[in-house]
């Protein structure tokens, strides 16, 4: 049993003020294998005070000095990457081979990316506009609220640029997956990040999370999470006029145009969508296909799904693991029942527990065909391994269906040529689009349109979120 009884506040491990704890469950074995403090409002206040106290001196360091810390943090993360992969796999359920790449490798890569971005930012001259010099300065104290699906990546996507910018911060990770954040705090301590710059507080969103969002000494809140939580946090921050950055839900479309090679598009779409069992905000959960080719698409999709093995996340062999929690499993299975009730055609999977899985929050990866975009399963984010195949009558119809969503996070287009795919990509109301299998790029701006959020993370755009702009008017 791994017991964390302390929080990381003001550069020290300090006991939480209360005795309540959050138990961390391994979703594959259903065993409680760790616990962390359920912090109180007093703990939140102490963390904000520490971050406020550290801001002046941290923000006055040179950008290069701050970037030096980021470089050391990235190196320490790389050294501990096997431990991080195993830990996230145990708390979150992603099979270890993918966890090594995505849950440990990706956040390390993002931390490392801010070394180059920091060096470039340090070298840039202030812009001149007429008689003004325009300078950028850190926004101040930041609260970071993060989810469980790519837990360390989502923390690092905020922490790394905030450090470069000169901000100080309090991280409140998801209660399902808090353990990786303790490793990050240990690393901050080891590399000597000054006291109060990085603080870690664990606990429930509704209590300690809200305390961190209403606090008048917090200048900015960045949340990655559900649209409901993002909207609530914007309300909490409004009275004190905080900057709010929201990375929220999605229901992204994989638009396969008439001219596309479906033998490439469909298997790639299945593998991408099923990564992390569909618990990915950018998952392409609506596959929009030419109506005349739907049967071929279904055959290819089922074949691709059958090639993905499910099982024990500690084994190198598997692609699919359990859902993160019992409640997530129930939610997903309820949505599958809703799809059947709505009249969608079930072509793989179903709402029952998969055979042979009495223990663990496993669900059957599921594909529906003949889905109408107005159905609940096509409109709401399921956050599980459930694909909706939606037939379209023309390419224009496919794009209209793709845009008929409250969300606008991601998308994909497949066409005969990249130019044709790009032309369609420009018509999608989403923050990113992959064309003809283009890969995720951790240096490109990441964020959503519509109910998927506000603001951008990653790359230089991610740094800009943490900056205030000041115009200094010079005498003639
Ligand atoms: P969630 O909204 O339940 O929780 C996210 C975080 O918000 C947690 O730390 C939680 O404790 C906290 N929280 C919840 N209510 C709060 C409140 N009132 N005040 C303060 N904090 C509060 O989301 P989740 O279930 O952890 O994650 C899944 C969701 O996250 C999905 O909707 C998914 O699409 C979204 N997500 C978005 C992105 C993105 O970058 N756009 C990335 C990953 C996940």
From TrEMBL:
Question: Keyword set for this entry?
Answer: Oxidoreductase
Quick check: keyword Oxidoreductase in the entry?
A: yes
Q: What is its EC number?
A: 1.2.1.-
Quick one: signal sequence residues? none
- Coiled coil location: none
Q: Which domain of life is it from?
A: Bacteria
What SUPFAM superfamilies does the database record attribute to this sequence? ALDH-like
Does Oxidoreductase show up as a keyword for this record?
Answer: yes
Residue limits of the Aldehyde dehydrogenase domain?
13-472
Provide a Gene Ontology MF annotation, just one.
oxidoreductase activity, acting on the aldehyde or oxo group of donors, NAD or NADP as acceptor
User: Which principal EC class is assigned to this enzyme?
Assistant: oxidoreductase
Q: Which family does it belong to?
A: Belongs to the aldehyde dehydrogenase family.
Q: What is this protein called?
A: Aldehyde dehydrogenase
Organism (species): Ilumatobacter coccineus (strain NBRC 103263 / KCTC 29153 / YM16-304)
Give the organism's phylogenetic lineage. Bacteria, Bacillati, Actinomycetota, Acidimicrobiia, Acidimicrobiales
């Amino acid at each position: 049993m791994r017991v964390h009884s302390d929080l990381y506040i003001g550069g020290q491990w300090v006991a939480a003020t209360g005795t309540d704890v959050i138990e961390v469950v391994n979703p594959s074995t259903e065993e409680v294998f760790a616990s962390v403090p359920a912090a109180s409002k007093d703990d939140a206040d102490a963390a904000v005070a520490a971050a406020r106290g550290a801001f002046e001196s941290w923000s006055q360091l040179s950008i290069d000095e701050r970037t030096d810390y980021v470089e050391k943090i990235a190196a320490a993360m790389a050294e501990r990457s096997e431990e991080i992969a195993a830990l996230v796999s145990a708390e979150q359920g992603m099979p270890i081979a993918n966890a090594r790449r995505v849950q440990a490798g990706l956040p390390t890569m993002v931390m490392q990316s801010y070394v180059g971005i920091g060096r470039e930012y340090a070298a840039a001259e202030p812009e001149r506009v007429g008689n003004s010099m325009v300078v950028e300065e850190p926004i101040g104290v930041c609260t970071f609220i993060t989810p469980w699906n790519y837990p360390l990546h989502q923390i690092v996507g905020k922490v790394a640029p905030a450090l470069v910018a000169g901000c100080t911060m309090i991280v409140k990770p998801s209660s399902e997956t808090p353990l990786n954040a303790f490793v990050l705090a240990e690393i901050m301590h080891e590399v000597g990040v000054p006291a109060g710059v990085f603080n870690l507080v664990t606990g429930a969103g509704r209590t300690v999370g809200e305390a961190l969002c209403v606090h008048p000494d917090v200048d900015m809140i960045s949340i990655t999470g559900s649209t409901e939580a993002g909207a609530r946090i914007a309300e909490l921050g409004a009275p004190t006029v905080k900057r709010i950055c929201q990375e929220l839900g999605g229901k992204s479309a994989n638009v396969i145009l008439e001219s596309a090679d479906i033998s490439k598009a469909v298997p790639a779409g299945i593998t991408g969508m099923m990564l992390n069992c569909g618990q990915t905000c950018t998952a392409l959960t609506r596959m929009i296909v030419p109506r005349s080719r739907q049967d071929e698409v279904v055959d290819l999709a089922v074949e691709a799904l059958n090639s993905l093995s499910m099982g024990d996340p500690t084994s190198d062999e598997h692609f699919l693991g359990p859902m993160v929690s019992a409640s997530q499993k129930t939610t997903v299975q309820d949505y599958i029942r809703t799809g059947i009730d709505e009249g969608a055609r079930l072509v793989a999977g179903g709402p029952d527990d998969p055979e042979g899985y009495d223990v663990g929050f496993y669900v059957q990866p599921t594909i529906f065909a003949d889905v109408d975009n107005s159905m609940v399963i096509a409109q709401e984010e399921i956050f599980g391994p459930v694909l909706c195949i939606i037939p379209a009558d023309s390419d224009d119809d496919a794009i209209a269906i793709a845009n008929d969503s409250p969300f606008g996070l991601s998308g994909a287009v497949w066409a005969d040529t990249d130019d044709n795919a790009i032309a369609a990509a420009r018509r999608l109301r989403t923050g990113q689009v992959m064309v003809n299998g283009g890969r995720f790029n951790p240096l490109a701006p990441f964020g959503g349109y519509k109910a998927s959020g506000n603001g951008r993370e990653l790359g230089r755009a991610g740094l800009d979120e943490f900056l205030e702009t000041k115009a200094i008017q010079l005498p003639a």
